[in-house]
């Protein structure tokens, strides 16, 4: 009886975490490193558009913002990081002209300006 119980328990454990890598992955999801929030915020604050497409830049910022959900940054900081990280373009010009009150509004303005600029160009 005890042997059957031990074998059954061993089989259940094997199905929960078939490999060591999967166990480590599950543990890291549940118990992130202590400085994870600091790392995400630092990366967010340093993010710039550079050579990335505007949509890729916005997606990267949104991903980093989602990573700070436990301790979110103030909206003013989020907006400033987005605006300052934009490269010189029609989107940046329009965002600074409009004076958006939220980062999502600024994103919408920038995306619309970039789309309008591309649509207006011949060819």
TrEMBL record:
Residues 10-88 form the Retrotransposon gag domain. InterPro entries: Retrotrans_gag_dom (IPR005162). Pfam families: Retrotrans_gag. It comes from the Eukaryota. This is Retrotransposon gag domain-containing protein. It comes from Phytophthora cactorum.
């Amino acid at each position: 009886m005890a042997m059957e119980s031990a074998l059954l328990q061993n089989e259940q454990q094997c199905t929960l975490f078939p490999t060591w890598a999967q166990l480590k992955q599950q543990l890291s999801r549940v118990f992130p490193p202590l400085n994870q929030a600091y790392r995400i915020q630092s990366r967010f604050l340093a993010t710039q558009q550079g050579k990335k497409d505007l949509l890729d830049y916005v997606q990267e910022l949104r991903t980093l913002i989602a990573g700070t959900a436990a301790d979110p940054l103030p909206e003013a900081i989020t907006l400033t990081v987005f605006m300052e990280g934009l490269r010189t373009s029609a989107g940046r010009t329009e965002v600074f002209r409009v004076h958006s009150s939220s980062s999502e509004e600024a994103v919408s303005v920038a995306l619309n300006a970039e789309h309008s600029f591309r649509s207006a160009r011949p060819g």
